[in-house]
Structure formats: structure tokens, C-alpha cells
Amino acid sequence: MGWSVYLFLFWGRNTVIVLKELKITKKPDVIEVSADVDGADPFEFQLPEKYDAFLDDESVDAFLLLYTWHAMELGVPLEVAAPVSAKFAGNLDRIQKVFLSLCPALRKVKITCVNARSVWRRQGSFASTGFSGGVDSWFTTLKAIQNGRPFDCFLFSSTGQHGVHQVEEVFQSRYQTALYALSSVSGNLMKLESNIDRVLRHGFMQTHTIRNLACALLLQGKIRSYLYSSAYDFIPDKITPSSDMATVEYFLLPLIVTERFEAKTAGLGASRTEKLVYLSGRQEFNGKLYVCTEKRIPATNCGTCFKCRRTLLLLAYLGLDSVIEQSFDYPAFKKRKWAMELGALVAAENSVPEYEVADIIYRHWGSRTRIVKPLISALAAIKPHTPTSLQWRIKNHYPYLW
Ligand SMILES: [Zn+2]
Predict the structure, then answer these.
(1) Whole-number mean pLDDT of the chain?
(2) Which residue segment(s) compose the domain that 388 sits in?
(3) Distance, CA of 217 to CA of 369 (rounded, Å)
């Protein structure tokens, strides 16, 4: 093939994305939602038929959020012929700026919305949030109850957070675990599956906020406000480069707003320790926590991954052993506690999320810290130079030590 043919194939692909109209297919138990689109792969969602009334069947706002990022990663203009919310369309320039600040590899693109409207047939009134059974979602849920504005419903979505193998099985199993945890609180836990992870080029950590917000926007037929449990507290004088979308939520969420929907961050300003102390003092908290990063079936806490380690040590130092007994293998934790402490302290020398654990351990040890600290620093200095084969063996057999 000559150069001209290659050039034609290159330019012939993805010269523009056209978002034409919403496609809703109702099956006996499930509703499939996608958008008729040219120039890019279609995003698809599935939700149980019983949540029909939640579906925003008037606009393509949910798709517009995802295609804005996708058009920027492909570097092609986006034309939207289907109806979109005028308020949201008016923020797309600023949304692109926030995306670019997080990921400079994206390109600013021209977005044209020819059918932006501000009057809609339906307007919901529900308050909602995501619920996984983790510390952040528990905190957001119980704070809302305490503030007298409990959530009407909760979302449990599949947007890339359940790994790449046996995704459906892991999703279903984690849903059951979250449902079991939520048993002491009223409100449905709604399942929502999507193919977002197969369409977006950038990974989950860099795009998790828009993936989950797209699910909430899709349900703006009933959901009026959505609280997003943010794990990142924005402190203006401590900005560091990061590819985690959580770092821009402070700016991004107020822009994801329509005439019928608003998104807000929740849980900012409270440390993990403060959140656990708060949970333990609330009667609606039943001690059922699920924090694990491992994709186990059934979905139980492995007790050894970095998230389990962090949570276990904080619970132990806060004297919340009853929660450990409810949600983890308590005897196994007791046996490896000292090794987990060593692993966490060494990791804390170079990892911001581990600082909190190290802080609570050092404070507990008091003056004895002076004896241990030089050893920890020495181990942290050696750690990056550990031979790869030994690193692999430690991570494989004793992940809590790494
Ligand atoms: Zn785990």
C-alpha cells in the first residue's frame, strides 16, 4: 500500500464523533441503554427492569460526559445532535480544562451541542450515593442519616473497578457483600453495569469519577442529587502531580450539573481514622466493612492487601477489635500483626496513604519510636533495591510485608 492509502485510512477513522440519539431496549428483566453514535465505539449500560422510572430517557447527558473525555483522548471533535442539558453543555469548556490539568496527553477538542435544552418533562427528587461497604461510603451514608437527609437509594456500579477477569462474577459477589453490609440502613442498592472500561483508553484511576458520575446522570429521571465519596482532600498548598481523578474532584464535580441534577463531594476533611471512629459510634453501623482490593469470589476481605492492612491496623489501634472480628479473619490478623506493622511503617516512608497508619503506631509506641525509626528508615532505603525475584516472592507470599 502506498502512503496515500495509509493516510486515507488514518484520516478516514475517527475524524469526528457524532452522538445522534439515545437507544433504549427493554427486555423481560433488564433495560439496555446506549447511544446511537458514529466515529467511536458505543457506551452501553444495563440496569434491572424494576428501575425503569429512574432512567433519563430525555437526554444523552451521561453519554456526553463520557464522550467528552473519549473525544479528547482520540483528539477528534464531538458533535451532539441528541438533546442535552443546557447547563451541562455550558460547562464543557471548563470541564475540558479540568481534564487537561489531570491528563496533559489529552487534546482540547471542539464540542458542538445543537440541541441543548433547559426545560425537561421529568424532574426527580431522590438523593443518592454509591455504596460498596467501604469506609468512605459508610461514612457518607451515616453522615447523611445524622444530618436528617438520608439517601433514597444507593448505586453499585460496574465501570472498571472489578478487574479484568471474571468481571461479572466479581461484580455480582461484591454486590451481595455490599447488600449484606447495607442491611441495617433503608434504601435500595441499585445494580448498574456498563462497558465503559472497554471503551475508554485511559485507566480506571484516571477516570473513575466520570465513570461513576455517568451512571448517576443516567438515572437523573429520579436522582436529583448525588454525593460522591471522595478519598482525596484538596489542600491548596499541598498540590502534587497525580493521575488519580480524585485530585480534581473538588473542581470537577460542581461542573457536572444539569437543570435536574447536581453532584457534590462528600467526606472531605475527615481522615480514615476519624471516619472509623465516627462509624463505630453510630448505631446504624453493623461492623460489616468490605475494603479489599483483591477480586475474591465470594467477596471477602483478604486481610493482606494494602487496603486491608491499613484498615486492620487502624481498627486495632483504635480498639475496634469487634469490627475486625465481624469483617476479617481475626485469628489470622493476630498472628501476622507485627509483620503488618513493619510492612506499613516501611511503606509509610514513601507512601502518603500509609502516613496515617504510621502516625497512629508511632504515637502509641511513644519514646520507643526512637529505637525503631532508624531501622525502618534503613529498610525503606533498601526496599527499592531489592532484587526483582525476591520482591516477587515477598509480594506473592507475604503481601502485607511489602
Ligand atoms: Zn484485601
Answers:
(1) 91
(2) 305-401
(3) 50
Q: Is the peptide bond before 298 cis (omega within 30 degrees of 0)?
A: yes
What is the C-alpha separation between 90 and 64, in angstroms, rounded? 12
Band of the pLDDT at 198, cuts 50, 70, 90? very high
User: How close is the Cα of 131 to the center of ligand 1, in Å?
Assistant: 18
For residue 33, the SS3 value is: strand
Q: How far is the centre of ligand 1, averaged over its atoms, from the C-alpha of 320 (Å)?
A: 18
Expressed in angstroms and rounded, the spacing between residue 269 Cα and the centre of ligand 1 is: 25
CB contact at 8 A, 330 and 324: yes
Q: How many domains does the chain have?
A: 3
CA of 292 to the centre of ligand 1 (A): 4
**312 CA to middle of ligand 1, Å?**
10
Ligand 1: distance of its center to the CA of 287 in Å?
Answer: 16
Query: Residue 291 C-alpha to ligand 1 middle, in angstroms?
Result: 7
Q: Are residues 71 and 135 in the same domain?
A: no
- What's the 241 CA to ligand 1 centre distance in angstroms? 27
Task: Write the pLDDT tens digit of every residue in 178-196.
Answer: 999 999 999 999 999 999 9
Residue where the block lists cell 485510512: 9
One domain for residues 133 and 243: yes
Residues 310 and 392 occupy one common structural domain: yes
Do 254 and 339 sit in the same domain of this protein?
no
Same domain for 167 and 226? yes
